């Protein structure tokens, strides 16, 4: 029986030693990193769902390359190993692939980074998948058995996804969180975003598929915690009530990403908390620079914050995401960002450095200007390391200024203040759900 082993590299990577020490000492950063590390790699589980008999499958989610991981993989004597990794961990993925291939096992690699840099990835594996892997996966398996694995498989991004059922049972335990997609891609094309267009067009998953997936998850873990792997959940045109009903049916608690405009959508606000949504991550982005490609998300800060207040008044916490280091950033503007976050009504915040991921308009622009730092490889593309020369600061000034933002925004006092805001929102949510059930 042929066997395929799925190996995603997960978890945060931070290159700069002082940032690593800082992250370990700030409870807000540490808790979010731990939550993300708990998430199963949905892309791999989805490909497993498409793997036909007589193939068998196994799943090894790992946070870092080790020789023990290589031994565990090769001990299974797989016919094929599928590896995925984000940019910050891709160098480790290349080492892992090289070691597995040295043991005589064929390796295929895919994901966002590989799709953006296929020529680079091809030097470390037998085959690469560019784009969404679902439509080429059967061909990859067929070619593996026939000894004719091609160097590159390119998925047509304009075709709708196949939406197979992910193989959650391969996790072998009850994960504290599940991942689920209700859509792929995003209608917008923000310059800094590496996911919205790279793998293909925007498509919404049929509600019947979502219901079936949620039912399987609920069988594994009653009242599951689910983080949607969507880029912008409510950016499409679907009727939101059937989606809310699907989450309510399994008593799920769920998190997602959306843009601030849901705070102006009465039908969304009515159903969010009642359906079990506990937090929405909203990209507010930079306070000093308007990124191209944001389309209808672009608005004045006062309007965005009014929408944030409406979402939280509806019983759902907002995690406001901000980018430090965009064009025009200065030490003074970083101080203003910090002061804003310390007094804002946001229940949670996320502050990361502008990161020019490969395949983005931002990466192309900075490369054309000769501003990418040549001495910092892919492992520095972590969202917490500087990888380019800022336009109005030195690299050292941006590094120091960013650390100071994190120290103040994620201090014990500031974290306690946001925790108090979250508790008030949770009480509001319970009250709204009680009214909804009457």
Automatic annotation (TrEMBL):
Residues 19-151 form the B12-binding domain. Its cofactor is [4Fe-4S] cluster. It comes from the Bacteria. Keywords: Iron, Iron-sulfur, Metal-binding, Methyltransferase, S-adenosyl-L-methionine, Transferase. The keyword Nucleotide-binding does not apply. PROSITE patterns: B12_BINDING, RADICAL_SAM. GO terms for cellular component: cytosol. One of its GO terms (molecular function) is catalytic activity. Residues 172-403 form the Radical SAM core domain. This is Hopanoid biosynthesis associated radical SAM protein HpnJ.
